[in-house]
Specification:
CATH architecture of the largest domain in chain A: 3-Layer(aba) Sandwich
Order of helices and strands of chain B: HHHHHHHHHHHHHHH
Helix content of chain B: over 70%
CATH architecture of chain B: Orthogonal Bundle
Keywords (chain A): Periplasm, Signal, Transport
Structural class of chain A: alpha/beta
Radius of gyration of chain A: 24 Å
Largest sheet of chain A: 5 strands, mixed
Structural class of chain B: mainly alpha
Distance between the termini of chain B: 38 Å
Largest interface: A-B, 33 and 32 residues
CATH superfamily of chain B: MetI-like
CATH topology of the largest domain in chain A: D-Maltodextrin-Binding Protein, domain 2
Order of helices and strands of chain A: HEHEHEHHHEEEEEHHEHHHEHEEEHHHHH
Number of strands of chain B: 0
Radius of gyration of chain B: 24 Å
GO molecular function, one term (chain A): maltose binding
Family (chain A): Belongs to the bacterial solute-binding protein 1 family.
CATH topology of chain B: MetI-like fold
GO biological process, one term (chain A): maltodextrin transmembrane transport
Helix content of chain A: 40-55%
Protein name (chain A): Cyclodextrin-binding protein
Oligomer: heterodimer
Number of strands of chain A: 13
CATH class of the largest domain in chain A: Alpha Beta
Number of domains of chain B: 1
CATH superfamily of the largest domain in chain A: Periplasmic binding protein-like II
Distance between the termini of chain A: 64 Å
């Protein structure tokens, strides 16, 4: 009897507590947000700030692992447990948008006082678009450019303020700077058999007049032939085929490569590791005056179409966007917007590098958008690797890639 | 009623329950997913139809598509080479070490224990370490080879299509040797000492003793080690992800990595399932060989 009484009392107490809790937030709408951001990155902090506003919308945050974002999201959507808002890698946005899994935000953005499509760089904005409508809002952005070791330029009699501007100059400079005796390669980049390989090659192909659905243009073949030339002459390490961008840049930082193609995420590590004078240049183009291009990374914010509170979810997104101007200062990420100036950091090397990256971002192009992007990417990786290992010539490899890509279904 | 109940605690019912419970578990946890996998290989599955069972049925189209891809044959061949070479390497080294530590020199048992470190380490860690060892420009392995004069230039283990698969095999042999050694050590220690003493009195030399006593007595242990080796090598995924990503140009791609790539990188779950079904066929064949090889076993 006593046990029963205690249990009863406990149950009543519990019910009372939860009733109180419910009462306190009875009018609150709960919005769930998923992203891969950790404590020091934007999402969880923005969520906290938003909740502190106490404006009747309560946001719950869940961190998901990098490798699980897409599979978690689609499992959740398939079983009706999708979050309201998710941060999704930009080439995967179209996959969800094409299946109407994401909410069409076009009208909401048009009527919004905070989110203005004109403020964004064209590349990130295109990645958030499908079929002429906006299905997402760019969260942040990054791209790639050419890092070079100014000290090595001086040693070899090159002008450190005249980095290579065309492909020929790049190859020529790499030839001059390659020094097998001292274990120095002219260039470091990544041709790995994963998305990183596509990320690095696609801008070259695009500058050669190619698009992902027309990959075997003359210019793209020339781009791949240039890569092969660099590999054949050992101007870059043969391990370029398996090195990640992170590994490739590490050889640059250690003084074992004179130039490296990589992104702004390397700047802080370079400042810590590289004990030489370095600079960043725009990605070299096929010939002077040619169209520029570069790859585009980072995530988009999207609202799942299954949300019960589209209005509130969009309000949360508006808050996130309203904080874009603090993103670089607080979290070191570049906002995807051309209307926000990156504030000076006080470190001349870093400021100069960032200025180049922001300039390069104007030419950044998204991968896709295509709902089956991973398959297209795989075809491109296969072409790169078949060429660089000498198993196919550039033309045949890209022809095969084009054939595979044309067989990829539209949705 | 009472009789049925009492037979459940003691008698036929009890026996049946003992068998039925694990069978039900096996069916639920292994059988159903296996059937589901086979079903998926005959359907068109993408990420948005993952949740439902009724999906467009495409017959053998996934199989036809898969076998018409240019890389398929190479990947299946790589899988066979990877499995055979890994098992052979792990087994020979493991057996050698087990015999060595079986001689009971001072400190043998704790030295043997130290060897287990490699088995305890997670595959991704092992992969990361071997990634450095095998690095073409600054790898330890190349340093050893060139400084001892065995090779006169760097070998690009991970990036040269003729070495990349062997680079992963090397790492996998290192990873699996100690496990083989421990199992084989247990087998060795269960052979009665007096057998050796008697044969020694009869004048049998070391090789004769090994051939006529050790090997036959170890038959079931060896069978188990090889069967487990087959399972572990067919499961080996981390090393590929950490060292080569299946590249360059699929030269080190194997079925298990490919199945993952198809499913979770290209989101083509039907093709991924199809590759797994092909792997199941291979494993079934291998386990048949194993069962046949041990059926003459006297069980005590």
């Amino acid at each position: 009897m006593t046990i029963r009484k205690t249990l009863m009392a406990g149950a009543v107490a519990l019910a009372g507590v939860s009733a109180l809790a419910v009462a306190a937030h009875a009018e609150d709408t709960t919005i769930t947000v998923w992203s891969l951001d950790k404590d020091i990155q934007p999402a969880p902090n923005l969520v906290k700030e938003f909740n502190d506003l106490d404006n009747g919308i309560h946001v719950e945050y869940r961190e998901i692992q990098f490798d699980d974002v897409v599979s978690e999201a689609m499992r959740a959507y398939a079983t009706g447990n999708a979050p309201d808002i998710i941060a999704i890698d930009n080439p995967n946005t179209a996959m969800f948008a094409s299946r109407d899994a994401f909410l069409d935000l076009t009208d909401m953005i048009e009527n919004s006082d905070v989110i203005n499509a004109d403020n964004y760089f064209p590349g990130p904005l295109a990645s958030a678009t499908w079929d002429g409508k906006y299905y997402a809002v760019p969260k942040a952005t990054n791209t790639i450019a050419l890092y070079y070791n100014k000290d090595m330029f001086r040693v070899h009699g090159l002008d450190p303020d005249q980095p290579p501007e065309t492909w020929d100059e790049l190859v020529e400079t790499a030839r001059t700077l390659t020094d097998p005796e001292n274990n120095v390669y002219g260039l470091a980049f990544s041709a790995k058999a994963n998305e990183e390989g596509t990320f690095q090659f696609l801008p070259w192909a695009q500058m050669g007049g190619a698009t992902y659905d027309n990959i075997n243009t003359e210019g793209a073949v020339e781009a791949l032939a240039t890569w092969k030339e660099i590999m054949d002459e050992k101007l870059a390490s043969p391990d370029t085929l398996t090195n990640s961008q992170w590994n490739a840049t590490a050889t640059f930082n250690a003084g074992n490569a004179a130039m490296a193609i990589s992104g702004p995420w390397e700047i802080d590590r370079m400042l810590a590791d590289a004990d030489f004078d370095w600079g960043v240049a725009l990605l070299p183009v096929p010939e002077e005056g040619a169209e520029r291009s570069s790859a585009m990374g980072d995530y988009n914010w999207a609202i799942f179409s299954s949300t019960k509170h589209p209005k509130e979810a969009f309000e949360v997104l508006e808050y996130f966007v309203s904080q874009d101007d603090t993103m670089f200062e607080n979290y070191g990420q570049i906002p995807a917007r051309s209307d926000i100036a990156i504030p000076p950091t006080g470190n001349a090397l870093k400021d100069a590098a960032l200025a180049t990256f922001v300039e390069q971002l104007k030419y950044a192009k998204p991968r896709g958008p295509h709902p089956q992007w991973p398959k297209i990417s795989k075809a491109i990786q296969d072409a790169i690797q078949a060429t660089l290992t000498g198993q196919m010539d550039p033309q045949a490899a890209l022809d095969q890639a084009a054939q595979k890509i044309s067989a990829v279904p539209d949705r | 009623m009472k009789r049925i109940l009492s037979s459940l605690t003691d008698g036929r019912g009890f026996d049946i329950t003992l068998v039925a419970v694990p069978l039900a578990f096996l069916f639920l946890l292994s059988g159903l997913p296996l059937l589901y996998n086979v079903l998926m290989s005959f359907q068109e599955v993408d990420m948005f139809s993952m949740g439902q069972l009724a999906r467009p049925f495409v017959g053998f189209r996934n199989y036809v598509d898969l076998f018409s891809q240019p890389e398929t044959f190479g990947i299946l061949l790589n899988t066979a080479v990877f499995v055979l070479a890994s098992i052979a390497g792990q087994f020979v080294l493991g057996f050698g070490l087990a015999l060595f530590f079986g001689t009971q020199f001072p400190g043998a048992s704790w030295l043997r224990g130290l060897f287990l470190v490699s088995w305890v380490m997670p595959g991704l860690v092992v992969g990361a370490i071997w990634n450095w060892i095998l690095s073409g420009d600054y790898g330890v392995l190349n340093f050893l080879l060139t400084s001892t004069g065995l090779t006169d230039g760097n070998i690009y283990w991970r990036s040269d299509p003729s070495y990349s698969l062997w680079a992963v095999i090397l790492a996998n042999i290192w990873l699996g040797t100690s496990f083989n050694m421990i199992l084989l050590s247990v087998g060795l220690s269960s052979i009665p000492r007096d057998l050796y003493e008697a044969s020694e009195l009869d004048g049998a030399n070391v090789f004769q003793r090994f051939w006529t006593i050790t090997l036959p007595m170890m038959r079931s242990t060896i069978g188990a080690v090889v069967a487990l080796g087959l399972i572990f090598t067919l499961q080996q995924f981390d090393l590929f992800a950490a060292i080569t990503d299946g590249g360059p140009n699929n030269s080190s791609n194997v079925a298990q990595y490919w199945a993952w790539d198809l499913s979770f990188r290209q989101y083509d779950f039907a093709k991924g399932a199809t590759v797994s079904v092909i792997m199941i066929v291979f494993v079934m064949f291998a386990s048949l060989v194993y069962v046949r090889s041990t059926r003459h076993e006297v069980r005590g």
